[in-house]
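Title: Prediction job returns without error message
Component: structure pipeline
Severity: low
Priority: P3
Assignee: unassigned

Description:
Job completed but the reporter wants confirmation the result is attached to the right record. Sequence as submitted:
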Amino acid sequence: MSQHDTPVLPPGDQEIVVPRADSSGDPKPLMIRMPVDVRSLALSVLAVLGTILVLRYAQALLIPIVLGILISYVLTPVVSALERIRVARAVGAGVAVALFVAAIGVGVYRLSDQALDIAASVPQAAQRIRERVRMHRHDGSGALQTVRRAATEIDRAAAEASAPEAGAPKGVTKVQVVDPAFRASDYLWSGGMGLVTLAGQFAMILFLVYFLLVTGDLYKRKLVKIAGPQISQKKITLQILDDINRQIERFIRVQVLTSLLVAFATGVTLWWFGLDHYVVWALLAGIFNSIPYLGPVIVTGGLGLVAFLQFNDVLWTLYVCGSAFAITSLEGMLLTPALMGRAAQMNPVAVFIGLLVWSWVWGVWGTVLAVPMLMMLKAICDHIEDLQPIGELLGE
């Protein structure tokens, strides 16, 4: 530190250097000097990279576990209510899982025909959009046609430049590689195996949910037992675990409640517009509401295709899409922040980055589970001293 610098030493290991102006009169930038352990930093980076690799490699194992934990949080109130009326916990857990499977089965059975109709209408909507674009296209004078003609001329020039010269050896035969014909049996086989795998994973998730519901707070008691011999250590551990469970349960309840409200409001709105299969679209809006930013966009795009196919009117289609998007936007900006509470809120930048990271790590399931995983990570980091900076970065 030069003689022109004035050190200010607050409590701790940091040293804030307030530099004075140099000979030219320009002030020097303010600096904070703090000790950095290169070895600890390198180990932290390696630990983060190793964790990401494990998450990507073991996603077939970890995704069912995360889904089982989240579903158990949803079904825990049902088991607790049955337990209060003197129903054994093992029986109550079985009843809760059976009701969960029955609800899914009834929903799929009742809405499968409507979902197939919606899927069949998508090509027709795309064809009608192409016809509408073709009707408004200028006769060879539009920008698209100009770009297309320019691209054609560039392709011709490239073909002429790459053509063999006059003195090139003759007798060379061009060979065109033709892909094998479409075989439906291959796709049916792969699709059937995918369904079998999905059914097997769903069964494993249900077994895990049942065992989690039966054991209840078993692991919480075990963590309190191994926390330490002193009563104070056990009390602190119990308080931390209760706070974490309370935050996660509140998040799950709010997520389920807001999804139901979005589904109801979207269904009523689409019914008022007279859209066909409004029940399916209401359920899709409620389900995709759990995916921030991307979910409402997907539902709005699908509604645009279906509404345009049914009404054949651009303005009416915009009304339908705008109403559905406004419902999800108002829920995200007003209802969810009011219900979540200040401690459980996460800032939009952290949510968006987390969505990108988890989508890259776990694909589609990462997109669905990004917000619950971030919420659980924040709840844990808020109660562990060394991880509190991470919780602060995720919070509001």
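Comment from assignee: result matches the submitted record. The first helix runs from residue 38 to 57.
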